[in-house]
Amino acid sequence: MSNETLLVGFLEIAVPIQIEKLRCAGGITEERIAQLQAYGEDLSGHGEALLYRSRAGGESAARFKQFVEIIAVGAFAPGGITIFGLHFEERDDGLDA
After folding, report:
1. Quick check: helix, strand or coil at residue 38?
2. Are 5 and 49 in contact (CB under 8 A)?
3. Segment 47-88, tens digit of pLDDT
4. Which of 42, 66, 76, 97 has the most CB atoms less than 10 A away?
């Protein structure tokens, strides 16, 4: 099984959970968006930690968490977000496709 296949499998589980957490917290805030912009800088410099285990303890887990949060926020945009063939969209009925 490839690293990308594992990543997609983990995203299928983690992103809907994060969407629900954001929904329960009242949705997207300006603070959350500012935090995600900082995540983008981290991921652009260390994105390989998503596919390959980092030698720095906890770095791969931290990058995965950031990636999941970014995708979950994208799910709140009109039409949602599609990545790696997966589509995530926050819907009023509480279901995420």
Report:
1. helix
2. no
3. 676 677 777 778 888 888 999 999 999 999 999 999 999 999
4. 66
What local confidence, expressed as pLDDT, does residue 95 receive?
Answer: 52
**How many angstroms separate the CA atoms of 83 and 57, rounded?**
27
Q: How many CA atoms lie within 13 A of 2 on its CB side?
A: 3
Spatial contact of 69 and 43, defined as CB atoms under 8 Å apart: no
DSSP string, the chain: --HHHHHHHHHHHHHHHHHHHHHHTTS--HHHHHHHHHHHHHHHHHTHHHHS--SSTTHHHHHHHHHHHHHHHHTTSTT-EEETTEEE---TTS---
